[in-house]
Amino acid sequence: MLDVDCLDYGDSLMVPVGRAFRLQPQFCELPFQAIRCTLDAELVLPAGASDECIAEFQRLTKCATYEPIRARLIRFQPGTGEPVLQLLVPAGADSNSQLCVTEELRRQGFLL
Fold first, then answer.
1. Maximum distance among all alpha carbons in the chain?
2. Per-residue pLDDT at 91
3. Where are the beta strands (DSSP E) in 22-106?
4. Strand partners, 72
5. CB neighbours of 29 closer than 8 A, spacing ≥ 6?
6. CB 32 within 8 A of CB 56
7. In the predicted model, what is the mean pLDDT of the chain?
8. How many CB atoms lie within 10 A of CB 95?
9. Tens digit of pLDDT for each residue in 36-82?
10. Per the database record, which ranges form the Tudor domain (predicted)?
11. What's residue 69's pLDDT?
12. d(Cα 46, Cα 43) in Å, to the nearest integer?
């Protein structure tokens, strides 16, 4: 089995060696859409709330619906240089107003 990173949407999966193929060169020229990053807040969860927090995060970000969300660069992580991002999603029907995902998770009690 091979651990394959899907650079187009940031997921990974295990694939049998016989089902893996070399990418054609033209696909390597496309820009990647996923990056390794950190959210702007540490997720501090009360015991047993993890599944609820994940479900709410997925609901807020419309996980797997391929709808765009915005990310605001806050800073770079000392030592690793990894970007620390704030995720912004449309707040209701008014697409001009935005909701910060981590602030909403904090408001709901998932973050301290």
1. 48
2. 83
3. 38-39, 70-76, 83-91, 94-100
4. 86
5. none
6. no
7. 81
8. 8
9. 788 887 655 655 557 888 889 889 988 877 777 888 999 999 998 88
10. 2-40
11. 85
12. 10
Q: Are 85 and 73 in contact (CB under 8 A)?
A: yes
- Rounded Cα–Cα distance for residues 48 and 51 (Å): 7
Beta strands in the chain (DSSP E): 2-6, 11-15, 38-39, 70-76, 83-91, 94-100
Percent of the chain at pLDDT exceeding 90? 19
User: How many whole angstroms separate alpha carbon 101 and alpha carbon 56?
Assistant: 10
- The residue type at 26: Q
Does pLDDT of 101 surpass 60?
Answer: yes
Helices (H) and strands (E) in the chain, counts: 3, 6
Domains of the chain: 1-34 (no CATH), 35-112 (2.40.50.90)
